[in-house]
Amino acid sequence: MTSDGVLQKVSIGLHRAGVSGGLALAAGWARRAFPILTYHRVNDHQDPFFEALPTHVLERQARYLARHYAVLPVEELVDRMAEGTLPRNAAAITFDDGYRDTLTHAAPILARHGLPATVFLATGFIGTMDVPWHDRLATAFKLSPRSTVVAHSGEELVIETVDGRLAALARTRAHLKTLGEEEFRRAFNRLLENLGASDQRSRKNAMLSWDDVRALRGLGFVIGAHTVSHPILSRVSPERARAEIQGSREMIQGACGAAPRAFAYPNGRPADYTAGVVDMVRAAGFSCAVTTRFGLNTARTSPWELQRGQPWEEDLPTFALKLAWYRMTL
Q1: How many domains in the chain?
Q2: Per residue in 211-241, pLDDT tens?
Q3: Is 216 in the same domain as 281?
Q4: What is the DSSP letter of 37?
Q5: Residue 122 shares a structural domain with residue 153
Q6: Which of 11, 13, 238, 310 pairs with 228 at a CA distance of 20 to 30 A?
Q7: Residues 126-172: pLDDT tens digits?
């Protein structure tokens, strides 16, 4: 049996014995810290090119979190950490990009369990028929009539099967994220051309509308900013980075009547933003920002470089055990 198999077996045993909740409680007393859970799509389409968490998995996770954790918006947890009033077993839930299934699939589940969340919007796609570049790329690989494609590196990628297309998509997407602004644009457009698929910017109902965003606010969700067009901020000019940060804040304020307090760095890994970008986020008026650096947030964590992630398991006992274990050990 693999180590993952052993972990799952132990997790199931502890969960059936009713120990998971006790571990969560013990972890809460172990230290003052909070995790931020990251979600993107939630639906049951089972499309491997557009990965999504199934609704029944979110339902189980939401029920567990509501029972064992004090789930509050990121912004409130940052305030309460500074005030010294952070609840035991505090946690936050976030959704990135602004996909419409946040409203249609995720929101009813969270509302049913009384859980708030912060939704980080790539505002240039809200209320439009356009989608982020990574979704355009996925669509191109999915629909390409080609059996091979030449990547930006000059490598010929075989895309005869679904698995081959998914592997090529992952490699290509990772490579494009390392390119500077102009080189990215040229490489991206050339790749779409090489794939021979029509550039389908339009995916009906893929993204939220501004009416949808206002509906989420009415359900108790908090709206945060995630740039205008989702570029990797360390790869663009300072002028464009500033415009992306400030522009997303202004668009949300104009549409919702209130400026967002929280910001999410696109991709959010250490190489994806700089100290200068962090300064821009602070100067724009945000009180906190989230990364995708994996870890917990304590009083020592910069509010403009909050860590987040989650146990990437659909199995609830393993999800529960890892969430408690991370809290006690990270």
Answers
A1: 2
A2: 999 999 999 999 999 999 999 999 999 999 9
A3: yes
A4: E
A5: no
A6: 310
A7: 999 899 999 999 999 999 999 999 988 888 999 999 999 999 999 99
β-pairing, 118-121 vs 90-97, is parallel
Tell me, what DSSP letter sits at residue 76? H
Range of the domain at 149: 133-195
Domain stop point among 175, 195, 215: 195
Indicate the residue type of 66.
A
How far apart (Å, rounded) are the C-alpha atoms in residues 8 and 112? Answer: 28
Determine the Cα–Cα distance for residues 271 and 104; give it in Å rounded to an integer. 33
User: What DSSP letter does each residue of 252-263 carry, written as one string?
Assistant: HHHHHSS--SEE
Residue type, 275: A
Q: Which residue has the tokens 């890994």?
A: 269
Tokens of 128: 């439009």
Please spell the DSSP secondary structure of 89-105, one letter per residue: TEEEEEEEETBTHIIII
pTM value is 0.90
Write down the residue that tokens 């009539």 correspond to.
145
